[in-house]
Amino acid sequence: MAQTLLLVDDNEEHLASLQTGFSRSDYEVLVAHGGTEGVDIINTRPVDVVVTDLRMPDADGNSLLAASRQMNPAPQVIILTAFGTIESAVEALRDGAFTYLTKPVNLNELRIQVAKAMEHQQLRRENIALRQEIDKKFGFEGFIGETREMEQMIDRLRTISDTRATVLIEGESGTGKELVARALHRNSSRANKPLIPIHCAALSENLIESELFGHEKGAFTGAAGRRQGLFELADGGTIFLDEVGEIPLSTQVKLLRVLETREFLRVGGMEPVKVDVRVLAATNRSLAEEVEEGRFREDLYYRLNVVRVTLPPLRARASDIPLMVDKFITELAKEHGKKPVTLSKRAMTRLIQFPWPGNVRQLRNVVENLVLFSRGEELDIDDLPTELSEKAAENLPIKVGEPLDQIERKVIEGTLVAAGGNRTKAAELLGISRRTLLRKIKELGLEA
């Protein structure tokens, strides 16, 4: 689609000269006989670049500039001015004009400036499109669900997104806790600053303090120089502590200090470092129970639990599964260059009935598997992965109202059987980490 150039001048001879100068360009050229007509065009259709005289009797170049700034994206405005009004042109630059040229206008120079403005505008449109795509994936639009609980949760997230409140996000593995964190960040005034996710379980106890708060030269063996920690790198933005319950007690004290005073000491440092960081934390276990067991500081728990968001497991909102499947099929087919597929009623029913211990992440993995290996346009129950097969389903006689730990036990047992006892494969099928699976196996007494 051709980019659009709007030429505005109240002098018919000048306007005709400008129009002739761009008659062989690849732009769609529009003309306005005066400022008022130019404002009308800007308000009624997309325009990429405006070339306008500064002094006009009805509406001047500043009026066009003001009208342009109300558009999204705003067109680039090039001001044409006589020598006597250069001061006014410079003022227009401060108000957002792209550049100005003095009269009599050199057409070659004007063509060069219009080309630069068009390039700038194209980049701006691409950035807006990219941001919209990111917002669609990581903003509130990324949440799928029509249940009342999901609608209430999204309303709650919208309310707290543009605040400094510390948020504790609770939910089982795979429910979308990081998506919530990204949505809170994207919809806050910190969106243009860093969002740094930290997977606390992946950091060793010896390194976590240095990773979070940095260190000074010589603080320990191998510390060859000063290093900024992740809190320092997130200054002005947001830090997301995933699996915060895995942070050792010794480091919890320092984290508490950051939340209380917004400052910390680097490892081996003497000077406090001040930061402006919003803290979001997530856990797939009950921190209240961890406090009772003495594995998590009570004062830190209350500091993190200023606002609590609890994500429901997928099995608690099974009615949303068809919506999710449709969205995942569309996204993944596009991502992998595949044709979209549909699921038969029997196959969709199986997905709805399955307890999904790995939650949304596991469902997405299953749909990706279906998209990648589909051999037809409609998939039936026999096309579903092993863990959803008839045999696996027979091993999962789940009843309404059955305790969650019993459901979890049956699902993990059935998946281990389907994976031939391979725990790494079982974790992949469940959409959880091997470490989480091993912990579940231990908790449920399934070691044998």
Structural commentary:
- With 448 residues, the chain is of the alpha/beta class.
- The chain has three domains: 4-135, Response regulator (Rossmann fold), CATH 3.40.50; 141-310, Rossmann fold; 314-443, Helicase, Ruva Protein, domain 3.
- Helices cover 46% and strands 13% of the residues.
- The strands form four sheets. The protein has a five-stranded parallel β-sheet, with helices on both faces. It has a five-stranded parallel β-sheet with strand order 7-8-11-6-12. Strands 9-10 form a two-stranded antiparallel sheet.
- Helix 2 (35-44) packs parallel to helix 3, helix 10 (249-261) packs across helix 12 (298-304) and helix 17 (404-418) crosses helix 18 (423-430).
- The radius of gyration is 29 Å and the shape is globular.
On the 0 to 100 scale, the average pLDDT is: 84
Please tell me how large the radius of gyration is.
29 Å
Please give the largest β-sheet. Answer: 5 strands, parallel
CATH topology of the largest domain: Rossmann fold
- Percent strand equals 5-15%
Helix content: 40-55%
